Structure formats: C-alpha cells, structure tokens
Amino acid sequence: MMMLLQVIAAFFATVSFAVLFHIPKKEYMFAGITGACGWLVYLAFLNLYPSVTVASFIAAISLTFLSRIFAVYRKTPITIFLICGIFPLVPGAGIYYTAYHFIMGENALATAKGIETAKVAVAIAVGIAFVFSIPYNFFRRFFNNREKR
Amino acid sequence: MDRNQQILELTIIAGELLLKNGAEIFRVEDTMEKIAAAYGAEDYTVYVISNGIFATVKNKDSSYKTQIQNAPLSPVHLGRVAAVNELSRQIVNGELSLEEATEKMRDVWNIPFTSPKLQILASGLGSACFCYIFGGSVIDSLIAFVSGILLWIFMLKASKVKLSKMITHIIGSAFVTICGLLAFNLGIGEHLDKIIIGSIIPLVPGVPLTTAVREFFNGDHLSGTIHLIDALLIAGCIAIGVGSLLKIAAMLEGVAVI
Q1: Taking 80 as the threshold, does the pLDDT of residue B19 lie above it?
Q2: Mean pLDDT, to the nearest integer, of B81-95?
Q3: Which one of A27, B141, B197, B223 has the largest count of C-beta atoms within 10 Å of its C-beta?
C-alpha cells in the first residue's frame, strides 16, 4: 500500500518535471509512466538488497529501456521521456546530506555521503549507457511498421 | 540566394533549435546531415559542440559556403526538440519544399513556453511529491508544496532580470531552506531534511547530468565535459545555498536544525 502511494507520487513528480521542461502535452502520461516505473523498480530492489547504488543502477536500466520503447512507439526523441523519468533517481538527497554534514563540520560523514552520491550518479550513468548500447533494431521489432527515432 | 545557401541556412536553424533546447550533439549533427542530404546537398559537413555549430557545404564550382552559429547554454524546451524531429521526418520523406521547410522551421521558435502559472504549480507539485517519496509525511509535503511554488516564482523573476545561473541557484536553495526552517521551527512539519530535499528538487541538475552521460556515450567527450561541469557547478551552488543557511541557523540560539 505504502509502495503504491509512493509510485503514484513518483508519477505526478515526473509529470511536474515534464511541465517544467515544456514537453508536448500528449506525452505527459508516457513520461509519468517512465518515472513511476523507475521508482517502482528502485523500491522493489531496495527491499531485496539494501544498496542505493545497486537499486539506482537497476532502476536506471529499466526506465531507460522503457524510454526507448516509448520513443519508438510515440515517434518522439527519447530525451523527452528519459530526462523527466530519471529525476526521481537523481541524487538530490545526496547533495543535501553532503552539504549538511560538511557545513556542520562532520567531515567523515560528509565524505561518506559525497562518495555515495557520486556512486549513485555513476550507477545511473552506466545504467543509461548500458541500455543505449542495445541495437536500435531490437526495439523496432516491437513495432514492425514504424520508422526510426 | 542560391540553393546551397538556403540549405545551409535551414540546417543551421534546425541545429540551433535542437542544441539550445536540450537535444544531444549526436541528434543535432544527425538531423542536420539528413536534412542537407534530403535536399541534395553533396559534401555537407557539420561539427557541433555544446555551445556552437559549424557547417560547410561545397558548391558545384568547388568553392565552399560556411556558416557558424553561436548557441549559448539556455533553458530546455523539449517540445521544440520534438517539433524539429517531426519536421525533419517530413523533410526526409520529401513532403516539404525547401521554402516551406525553412518557414516551418522558423515557426518552431514560436512554440511558447508552458504558462508561468502552470510552471509554478508544477514546481510546487513536484516538490511535494518528491518530499513524499523520500520519506516525508503529508504535512512535510504540504510545506514543500508551498516552498516549491515560492521558489519557482523567484526563478521566473530571476530569469527576467537575467541574474547569473550560479547566483540564482544559490539564492533559490537558500530561500527554500529559510522556508523549511521557518515552518519547522513554528512546529509545523516533522522532518526538516525531507522538506528541504523536496523543495530543492526543481533546481537539481538532472538535465545536464543525463545529457553529459549521453554525450560521453556517443564519443562527444568535449561536450560531455561541458555538461558535466555545468551539473557539478549547479550541485555545488545548491550545496552552498542550503549549507550556509543551515550553518547560520545552527549558530543562532534556540533554532532547531534537525
């Protein structure tokens, strides 16, 4: 139940960013689904294995995969779904805690949080790159008669 | 004006649109080359970095036409990227004459930004939802909603007076920290950290980070570095804004910061 509410919140959070980046109105819903899916996978993996980095990596993979499918299906640049959908994973909390501990003079904690934040950023990056290396034709197979983009 | 000149101009308009509104280098170059090829320009070369475009086309008499376009980093408008994409598809399919295409491409610049009211609302809603998914309570989310709204009103005002990006991000994040501290110390709200994390989210550099990753992946290391530094600078500014306010609050007596 808790998880369902969280995923719904992630959906609306992603749609909010879709509005802030001025994406076409008819794509709002698809961007929202991308973000919600990423967050669902993140939460599910965090339950299985308590590592933020691993969960972010798997979530980045799944939401980039979904973005590519939507990009082919909606014939729109993938940027539209990816940029909005990735937002729940971007380590905003990491930036906050790093700054907090740093300013409070707790250097060891600040370093630990800073390194964790960097790890999450790298995990997201590798996750995105991983899915981008799948050949385009793999995605086109889902929608045979649709053309590129 | 001869045909090669027209083709060059059309591709430069398309390229500038894509680059300024948040497309990655690979897409800009690819689209420009495809448009040029669709109108039969032979020997068309384009080089794009994250803030400039260089394109050259060879004429029949072996002379060259070259155009350079400066494109400073600017606000993202993904709707325009989608529109150029749609237009280039039509061009490649041969549905538009060169004149029609140029006119339609210029029109893309007129696609408006989302109305300020809707942007402000979206900023509030986004902050509230993020506060909730990071573990804030409903009341925390409501506070994040209010400070998200106030934050975006400030950001819109700041973009009108053309304040530098670093200063806006420092002031913006300091401002939401004040909102959070005020509410928390008045006894509304349960987790100060969740409130602030939620409200700084509209400032967090998700776009430059994602773009940087994709540039690196496509082998555009120079542009990737520019976006990565952009992301790091913004993250640093947010940290400075939030951190300095928390420090001031911690130094004052009788103000709770956790």
Answers
A1: yes
A2: 91
A3: B197
Q: Is residue B257 part of a domain?
A: no
Domain count, chain B: 2
Q: Would you kindly state where each structural domain of chain A is located, as residue ranges? A: 2-89+127-143
Residue of B nearest to A103 (CA): B243
Residues in CB range of B132: below 8 A, 6 or more apart: A5, A6, A9, B138, B140, B141, B198
Of B23, B79, B213, the CB nearest to A24: B79
User: Would you say how long chain A is, in residues?
Assistant: 149
Which of B80, B213, B217 has the most A C-beta neighbours within 10 Å, making it the best mutation to test the interface with A? B213
Q: Kindly determine whether residue A20 and residue B119, on different chains, have CB atoms separated by under 8 Å.
A: yes
* Residue B137 sits in the same domain as residue B241: yes
Nearest beta carbon to residue A16 from set B76, B83, B125: B125
Task: Give the list of residues 6+ apart from residue B224 with CB closer than 8 angstroms, or none.
Answer: B212, B213, B214, B215, B216
The model's pLDDT over B152-184, given as tens digits with 9 standing for 90+, comes to: 999 999 988 888 889 999 999 999 999 999 998
Strand, helix or coil for residue A90: coil
pLDDT-based confidence at A87, cuts 50/70/90? confident
Closest partner residue to B133 (CB to CB) among A9, A20, A125 is A9
Chain A residue numbers with beta carbons less than 8 Å from the beta carbon of B193 are 96-97, 100
